[in-house]
């Protein structure tokens, strides 16, 4: 480690959800380089963090490319399509799994391995062969591993979005253990679930003019839905998000009168706990290092801001690919860097 700052590499950086997570965690870490092939995501990233990600494809990174950063920590949020129904769950046979598998191999070739590793992915990653490769490699190299499946709702954010997280810390002499016997935590904190107050969804919404129909859900979308359960939940639909109410609806036409609208990119950014320019400073609260905190809207610089020329559709897509910065921050504070 160089000085007291933890040097992080952010792989699959997108719009920098993991970087924001590191900042929110306040763990004295710095992202020294990031990697992504998506030019629009990189443009947003550079606009916010004033540092351009490398657009070299991750599957071509060499040991030398990585070693020059002398990184202590790897942050990874690889593509999720290999593990989703929509992506046909091809797992290791999906070419989009290749960069992750490449990094897993690369890890063993490094003279100095990162002490810390954090990975985020979708539910179902935990049953994949890719995860098996990752956990087997980390165990063989002497990492102590924690895995969990958690939703922002468990952290006090009104958004249900179950995701897989893995934290790994290099601890020589950690026994490898049997990979099939591993616990995947589903409570937060891991030891004993704590009920965090969940603020109203309304607290995350922007006031919109009644005569502004920019975000209105077109009736043809609503009429195409059938028989779905409405909850105070948010449904991703065609890369956009809708807020729905709490009951089972059989007659979708009856939804038309609700005046449903999509969430705005700012609202999705808030629900993903990105620091936003529009948010007022968080109320002060006592916090103890490594102890789970009550959610507050992160503020400060850098915050999430889309540069001119990024269309609303692109903003939705980038946000949809991103992650919950608060959940990342709490797992970093309370598990990986505890
Ligand atoms: C699930 S998203 C991660 C999003 C990110 N955590 C964020 O906060 O926006 C996966 C990212 O991996 C990038 N990606 C996919 N294949 C890649 C490759 N071979 N090399 C570099 N980046 C890649 C995609 O462009 C996408 O931005």
Brief sketch in words of this structure:
With 338 residues, the chain is an alpha/beta fold.
For the report, how would you describe the main beta sheet?
7 strands, mixed
Principal-axis shape equals globular
User: Order of helices and strands, N to C?
Assistant: EHEHHEHEHEEEHEEEEHHH
What is bound: which ligands? Answer: S-adenosylmethionine
Counted beta strands: 11
Q: What is the CA-atom radius of gyration, in angstroms?
A: 20 Å
Describe this structure in words.
By secondary structure, this protein is of the alpha/beta class. The protein folds into two domains: 6-195 and 274-336, Vaccinia Virus protein VP39 (Rossmann fold); 207-263, no CATH class. It has nine helices and eleven strands. The protein has helices at residues 17-25, 39-49, 63-67, 98-107, 129-140, 219-224, 265-271, 312-321, 325-336; strands at residues 6-11, 29-35, 73-76, 116-122, 143-150, 163-170, 184-185, 229-230, 234-237, 240-243, 247-248. The protein has a seven-stranded mixed sheet, sandwiched between helices. Strands 8-11 form a two-stranded antiparallel sheet. A two-stranded antiparallel ribbon has the order 9-10. It is globular. The structure holds S-adenosylmethionine. S-adenosylmethionine binds next to helix 1.
Features:
C5_MeTfrase, binds S-adenosylmethionine, seven-stranded mixed β-sheet, alpha/beta, single chain, 338 residues, S-adenosyl-L-methionine-dependent methyltransferase
Task: Give the SSE layout.
Elements (H helix, E strand, L loop, with lengths): L5 E6 L5 H9 L3 E7 L3 H11 L13 H5 L5 E4 L21 H10 L8 E7 L6 H12 L2 E8 L12 E8 L13 E2 L33 H6 L4 E2 L3 E4 L2 E4 L3 E2 L16 H7 L40 H10 L3 H12 L2
Parallel strand pairs: 1-2, 1-3, 3-4, 5-7
Antiparallel strand pairs: 4-6, 5-6, 8-11, 9-10
Helix pairs in contact: 1-9, 4-5
GO molecular function: methyltransferase activity
Family: Belongs to the class I-like SAM-binding methyltransferase superfamily. C5-methyltransferase family.
Protein name: S-adenosyl-L-methionine-dependent methyltransferase
